[in-house]
Amino acid sequence: MGETPPRSADAGTGGIHVASGHGRPAGASARVAEAPVSTRTPGGDGLGGGGGLPRARAFGAERAFRGLTLAAGTAVLVIIAAIAVFLIAKAVPALRANTANFWTYEGWSPNDTAPKFGIGTLAFGTVLSSALALLIAVPVALGIALYLSHYAPRRLGTALGFLIDLLAAVPSVVFGLWGRDIFVNPVRDFSVWLNTYFGWIPIFGGDGPFGKSIMLGALVLAIMVLPIITSLSREVFLQTPTANEEAALALGATRWEMIRTAVLPYGRPGIIAAVMLGLGRALGETIALAMTLGITFGISFNLIENGGNTIAANIANAFGEANDTGRGALIASGLVLFTITLIVNITARAIIYRRREFTESAA
Amino acid sequence: MAKRVDATNVTAYYGGFKAIENINLTVEPKTVTALIGPSGCGKSTFLRSINRMHEVLPGARVEGDLTIDGQNIYDRDVDVTAVRRMIGMVFQRPNPFPTMSIYENVVAGLRLNGVRKKSILDEAAENSLRAANLWNEVKDRLGKPGAGLSGGQQQRLCIARTIAVEPQVVLMDEPCSALDPISTLAIEDLMFQLKDKFTIIIVTHNMQQAARVSDRTAFFSIEETGDPGRLIEYDNTQKIFSNPSQKKTEDYITGRFG
């Protein structure tokens, strides 16, 4: 009872008055009313609120937090818009000065007095090397991820997963150097072998020299995107509800059948997301490709001859000696890369969205 | 279509922990047998030993003999997947495959067994859904996701999925514990019909349910936490609930313990 005065002072904000014995006969009921108050929140009115409801606060942590998250969300849009505006503003003058067709011209000499440059070969090289890299990396990555999540003993799985994550931390310039100086040798030998025995297939044709080719670039890229796809899809596979895995096993599924019935369908949106992230990295990869590709202009499906170029690699190679128009041209190519990435991401979203009826209920 | 289950000295471990010890029990074909007992007494462990689902967990293993019509399912040369096809299981929480439609869920087991012919799958899907008393509710939306059904419907879908592969024995691990009373009733009714074709073993925490649906009841218990679960009494359900021979059983079913 000694606590009553400070409590009623506090209660002024909300006008709370607890019937703590005022005007009541002393007895069991008074004791019951007081006991929880004094034990649970000394100096307060109990979490349940003992009297009238307090007014909603006009400004509190709730609103502040909401404002913060809103600001963060808006910032993303503003940044993307700013990037787009910057790219367009810089690119347009260069595109105006271009004396060749930007889409079809096979070459890049924007620093000449009559600037000529075309994006076609670069965009082609970008898409070809990335697609090839994914073609190589995705099956391997999914295999590793499934092994880590469903076959390997738990300890080994954790250790290997850690190693794979380490691979993602290797800077791309290291991959580039390794690709250019070391990995190029076996790839060259392999290319020669392919050319000798499968030269009749156009992609393995040509007269050489071989080595610093789209194949080398794509292989190095594949190794670089492997850890991203592996560790993301491993997380996705680990999240498969045990109940679904057991349901499949209880129907008489083998381990692989269980994976096919329960794990892969459940992880499908996650796998797509992982692959798209890998593709994003592959499309934007700069220095490793600038070092491993032969840097030629010309659209060719030949995978093993020296050559190939990508938008990002070209920017890295050509930026140093570029004049104003040259920089504008490179930025225009950057804009095209931006668009390609955007299209890839929208496609991925669309694929995930198409089956949302099934995937949403999966959560 | 229904077989007899014989457990002899079945002992199951989780790593170094002995969960059940020396369970001896015989289940006759085409009966419903209820396993009851306090939490942690090993009912579910024993149930999962019957279709070798216990060993799915890392470090878990089973000792002793478990025979289905005389054939030991723990023999070395027995194919685990064949055992699980013969002994179906319904789990505590409804677990339809979330990415599959109602139809695909029901025929999932058949597809795993290599059945591809549409006519056979269609027929099996309809028969199983009818047997699970679900056909009338879902026949117009077989292509919709199975996870979109209500909890009770999902559980009947899981039962349909289990019986679609025509097992000999159906194990049910607290199949109604996540369901409302009306859905529970629907599944209990279903059990009466299913026992014409299958041997059913059900784990339940609900003693009224055990009394309603089962022919025989096995009471499991543990001495103390950390001790292995043991089979205390196994008898006709009526006897267990009216005149049990063990004091522990009586204490449990009258609510004085557990």
UniProtKB/TrEMBL annotation, chain A:
<dbReference type="InterPro" id="IPR035906">
    <property type="entry name" value="MetI-like_sf"/>
</dbReference>
<feature type="transmembrane region" description="Helical">
    <location>
        <begin position="214"/>
        <end position="232"/>
    </location>
</feature>
<feature type="domain" description="ABC transmembrane type-1">
    <location>
        <begin position="123"/>
        <end position="348"/>
    </location>
</feature>
<dbReference type="GO" id="GO:0005886">
    <property type="term" value="C:plasma membrane"/>
</dbReference>
<keyword id="KW-0472">Membrane</keyword>
<dbReference type="InterPro" id="IPR011864">
    <property type="entry name" value="Phosphate_PstC"/>
</dbReference>
<keyword id="KW-1003">Cell membrane</keyword>
<dbReference type="InterPro" id="IPR000515">
    <property type="entry name" value="MetI-like"/>
</dbReference>
<keyword id="KW-0813">Transport</keyword>
<comment type="function">
    <text>Part of the binding-protein-dependent transport system for phosphate; probably responsible for the translocation of the substrate across the membrane.</text>
</comment>
<protein>
    <recommendedName>
        <fullName>Phosphate transport system permease protein</fullName>
    </recommendedName>
</protein>
<dbReference type="GO" id="GO:0006817">
    <property type="term" value="P:phosphate ion transport"/>
</dbReference>
<dbReference type="InterPro" id="IPR051124">
    <property type="entry name" value="Phosphate_Transport_Permease"/>
</dbReference>
<feature type="transmembrane region" description="Helical">
    <location>
        <begin position="117"/>
        <end position="148"/>
    </location>
</feature>
<keyword id="KW-1133">Transmembrane helix</keyword>
<feature type="transmembrane region" description="Helical">
    <location>
        <begin position="160"/>
        <end position="178"/>
    </location>
</feature>
<keyword id="KW-0812">Transmembrane</keyword>
<feature type="transmembrane region" description="Helical">
    <location>
        <begin position="67"/>
        <end position="89"/>
    </location>
</feature>
<feature type="region of interest" description="Disordered">
    <location>
        <begin position="1"/>
        <end position="49"/>
    </location>
</feature>
<dbReference type="GO" id="GO:0005315">
    <property type="term" value="F:phosphate transmembrane transporter activity"/>
</dbReference>
<keyword id="KW-0592">Phosphate transport</keyword>
<dbReference type="Pfam" id="PF00528">
    <property type="entry name" value="BPD_transp_1"/>
</dbReference>
UniProtKB/TrEMBL annotation, chain B:
<dbReference type="GO" id="GO:0005315">
    <property type="term" value="F:phosphate transmembrane transporter activity"/>
</dbReference>
<dbReference type="GO" id="GO:0016020">
    <property type="term" value="C:membrane"/>
</dbReference>
<dbReference type="InterPro" id="IPR003593">
    <property type="entry name" value="AAA+_ATPase"/>
</dbReference>
<dbReference type="GO" id="GO:0016887">
    <property type="term" value="F:ATP hydrolysis activity"/>
</dbReference>
<keyword id="KW-0547">Nucleotide-binding</keyword>
<protein>
    <submittedName>
        <fullName>Phosphate ABC transporter ATP-binding protein, PhoT family</fullName>
    </submittedName>
</protein>
<dbReference type="GO" id="GO:0035435">
    <property type="term" value="P:phosphate ion transmembrane transport"/>
</dbReference>
<keyword id="KW-0067">ATP-binding</keyword>
<dbReference type="InterPro" id="IPR017871">
    <property type="entry name" value="ABC_transporter-like_CS"/>
</dbReference>
<dbReference type="Pfam" id="PF00005">
    <property type="entry name" value="ABC_tran"/>
</dbReference>
<keyword id="KW-1278">Translocase</keyword>
<dbReference type="InterPro" id="IPR005670">
    <property type="entry name" value="PstB-like"/>
</dbReference>
<dbReference type="GO" id="GO:0005524">
    <property type="term" value="F:ATP binding"/>
</dbReference>
<dbReference type="InterPro" id="IPR027417">
    <property type="entry name" value="P-loop_NTPase"/>
</dbReference>
<feature type="domain" description="ABC transporter">
    <location>
        <begin position="5"/>
        <end position="247"/>
    </location>
</feature>
<keyword id="KW-0813">Transport</keyword>
<dbReference type="InterPro" id="IPR003439">
    <property type="entry name" value="ABC_transporter-like_ATP-bd"/>
</dbReference>
